[in-house]
Amino acid sequence: MEAHLKEKIAYYAKGYAVAMAFILPFLLCFLIFFLIPFLSGINMSFYHYNIADPSDTYFVGLDNYSYFLFTPEIPVVIGGEPVIGADGNVMTVANTAFYSFWFSLLYTFLFALLIVPVSIFLPLFLASLLKKRPYGYRIFRSLIFVPSIFAVSATGAAFVYIFSNSDDGFVNSLFGTHVEWLNTPISAWFVIFLLCLYGIGSNFIILAAGLENVPKSLYESALIDGANSFQRLIYVTLPGIKYQLSLCFFTTLIGYMNLYGQNRVLTMGGPSDFANPERPGVTHTVIYVIQDYLTGSGKFSLMGRISAICIVFGIFVGALASLRLLIDREKKGGNRHANEFKEYFAKR
């Protein structure tokens, strides 16, 4: 019995040693580049943190969170004292941090609601067409995927020329128009929308692979039962690729909730909302606001507030990721395969 136990311990140790040899590099990178900075960011979010002057650092509790979540107005302070108005009350001004966060979150979410369905159904439509193997389908498949491998900065620079606000821009000169594409809210978001569609290649590959794995026998059975094209789509195709659709939906949604490069290259967060100067530029996203705070001059004392914004937004995006895990888990116990694996080794 004791010899058998030692044999099992040696077997497990050998197996885990090999596994740890492969996992250790990832664990080290995860620890150094994610976990430690993440915990430091959480700690920093509870402090007034000044990276330019470490002595100007003190604990503020939840003030950093309430500042941009629940404080639309802040008192006017001169010489460290609040300014009293003629009515005897403290004078206040609009808190731009409050408006920047909430409106950028609104802009980001509304844009994601528009771009995500298109980024899924357009590649699904293209994958369905190419599944029929038309002449030259390999070339078309490559042409759909290749744009997604180019850097946003490169394609964005081309779009800046194509949709230039001047009459010399490609689109304006081609059609004889005088549209300031990047200086008006609707047209600016439209150009960002078009640039984002360059990234549908990844979803196209995933959905095309999913369509190939749908059993042909199901389509044949549906035809025998008299199902039309729409019914075959609803009752055969979509259920057959539900996991690929779920993967594409949540990865695309999370990706566009982190939208930054496209609007940075094309519009620099503009155009400005002159009617509401306390609000950010109309193409500001949450990540753009965070980057704007990080790169802005004279904002070294705002690191605590920036960390709080990152933590709140990270929780929001993490909730979306957790929702996918909840939806995709198996109906009869999500740890079924783990239990089978455990029982297999217990019998050895």
Task: Give the tags.
348 residues; mainly alpha; two-stranded antiparallel sheet; globular
Polypeptide structure, described:
- The protein is mainly alpha-helical and 348 residues long.
- Helix content is 65%, strand content 4%.
- The chain has 15 helices and 6 strands.
- It has helices at residues 2-44, 63-69, 96-130, 137-145, 152-162, 170-175, 185-196, 201-212, 216-224, 229-240, 242-257, 261-266, 286-295, 303-328, 336-346, and strands spanning 47-48, 58-59, 73-75, 77-78, 81-82, 92-94.
- The strands form 3 sheets. Strands 1-2 form a two-stranded antiparallel sheet. A two-stranded antiparallel sheet has the order 3-6. It has a two-stranded antiparallel sheet with strand order 4-5.
- A hairpin with a 2-residue loop joins strand 4 (77-78) and strand 5 (81-82).
- Helix 8 (201-212) runs antiparallel to helix 11 (242-257).
- The longest helix is centred in the N-terminal third of the chain and has 43 residues, at 2-44.
- It is globular, with a radius of gyration of 27 Å.
- It starts with a helix and ends with a helix.
- The model has no long low-confidence stretch (mean pLDDT 86).
Distance between the termini: 13 Å
Which structural class should the secondary elements be placed in? mainly alpha
What is the helix fraction of residues, given as a range?
A: 55-70%
Quaternary structure annotation: single chain
What is the spatial order of strands in the main beta sheet? 1-2
**What kind of sheet is the major sheet?**
2 strands, antiparallel
